[in-house]
Amino acid sequence: MLHLGNSMRYIRMWVQKNYCRIRIAVDGFGKRCISFVCGNRSTETGLKLWEEIKDIPVSFYCWDYWKSYEAFIPPEKHLQTKAETFTTCCAFSKYSF
Prior knowledge:
The protein is mainly β.
């Protein structure tokens, strides 16, 4: 609230917070950035990152336990863990990026 002089009038000030998250895909062995997208925590933002990295030959992907990832990552390549996920997504490959 904003106080205006001695008249004891107040104006309520509402602040809208707009958050933007940067989702990063990192080579888990080399610790190098593969790709990134900006957005929110929606499945749509996750899909944008997935579209960027899905054709890269990797052994498996490490993502956290966010439920939306199950919608687009193949279960045979999806390792849900916090231990290996030092950023949003880690991709582990025998190939060099």
